[in-house]
């Protein structure tokens, strides 16, 4: 395990963890909003599973999250795109033949918005319970957008840790500008969607529709699965194993 500190194009210092077995493939993991590079333990477990199967992985904290020193109020979609691009560039310098991006929740939307013409080593996307239609999520619904416009910010609280987080007006308005759903429809890369049909935070129906309409897409619905699968170890184990199987399949195709 190697801890790495690096900087974005707009001079934000990031930190990440590279788990390596000298594989030719690396999975870059992008966590959800109000989370961190461990994704409440989900990424930690995936990294361990990948390591046992000789697949490298890199997980990092987006700005304003985890060990990052930036204030959470600085979080924006544009900023997270910069963070991910810096991470791809970092991993691209380490002689990998294949990079696969994995995004969870809000991170699923972020991996959809990258300009992939710049990153030829990225060979596929994995989207866990992704937020790809912001207006259809609990956090970024129209009522919360209107609150942010009126107040200049939106105060939220995480169910996982009880902490309060301030969503900036800029972040809320950017959800009206960026469209991960359409970006995925226009993306030819292989894609795997994994979603629970009892997710109250991100409606699975738009995920189902996107997987059906976009090229090179596979969809796995976890029956009765909730957002993050945090309440059911059996569901999470299924997600981890399906993810590993998909990665191995992608490797064999290269």
Layout of SSEs?
Blueprint (H helix, E strand, L loop, with lengths): L1 E6 L5 E7 L5 E6 L11 H11 L3 E5 L16 H16 L5 E7 L1 H7 L9 E7 L13 H10 L1 E5 L6 E5 H6 L5 H6 L5 E6 L7 H10 L3 E6 L10 H21 L1
Parallel strand pairs: 3-4, 3-5, 5-6, 6-9, 9-10
Antiparallel strand pairs: 1-2, 2-4, 7-8
Report on this model:
With 254 residues, this protein is α/β, with parallel strands linked by helices. The protein has 8 helices and 10 strands. It has helices spanning 42-52, 77-92, 106-112, 142-151, 169-174, 180-185, 204-213, 233-253, and strands at residues 2-7, 13-19, 25-30, 56-60, 98-104, 122-128, 153-157, 164-168, 191-196, 217-222. An 8-stranded mixed beta sheet has the order 1-2-4-3-5-6-9-10, with helices on both faces. Strands 7-8 form a two-stranded antiparallel ribbon. It is globular, with a radius of gyration of 17 Å.
In short:
The chain is an alpha/beta fold.
Instruction: Decide which structural class fits the backbone.
Output: alpha/beta
Order of strands across the main sheet: 1-2-4-3-5-6-9-10
Beta-strand percentage range: 15-25%
Helix content: 25-40%
SSE sequence, one letter per element: EEEHEHEHEHEEHHEHEH
Task: Just give the CATH class.
Answer: Alpha Beta
Radius of gyration: 17 Å
Continuous helix count: 8
What is the CATH superfamily? Alpha/Beta hydrolase fold, catalytic domain
Question: What is the correct CATH architecture?
Answer: 3-Layer(aba) Sandwich
């Amino acid at each position: 395990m190697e801890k790495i500190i690096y900087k974005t194009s707009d001079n934000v210092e990031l930190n990440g963890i590279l788990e390596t077995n000298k594989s030719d493939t690396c999975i870059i993991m992008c966590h959800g909003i109000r989370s961190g590079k461990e994704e409440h333990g989900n990424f930690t477990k995936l990294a361990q599973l990948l390591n046992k199967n000789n697949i490298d992985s890199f997980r990092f904290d987006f700005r304003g999250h985890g060990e990052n020193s930036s204030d959470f109020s600085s979080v924006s979609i544009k900023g997270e795109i910069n963070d991910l691009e810096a991470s791809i560039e970092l991993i691209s310098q380490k002689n990998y033949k294949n990079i696969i991006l994995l995004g969870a929740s809000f991170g699923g939307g972020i991996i959809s918005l990258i300009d992939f013409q710049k990153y030829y080593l990225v060979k596929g996307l994995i989207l866990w319970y992704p937020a790809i239609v912001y207006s259809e999520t609990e956090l970024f619904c129209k009522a919360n957008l209107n609150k942010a416009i009126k107040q200049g910010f939106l105060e939220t609280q995480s169910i996982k840790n009880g902490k309060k987080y301030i969503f900036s007006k800029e972040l809320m308005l950017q959800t009206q500008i960026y469209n991960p759903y359409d970006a995925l429809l226009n993306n030819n890369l292989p894609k795997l969607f994994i979603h629970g049909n009892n997710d109250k935070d991100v409606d699975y129906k738009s995920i189902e529709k996107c997987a059906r309409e976009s090229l090179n897409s596979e969809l796995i619905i976890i029956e009765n699965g909730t957002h993050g699968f945090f309440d059911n170890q059996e569901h999470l184990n299924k997600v981890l194993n399906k993810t590993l199987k998909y990665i191995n399949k992608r490797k064999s195709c290269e």
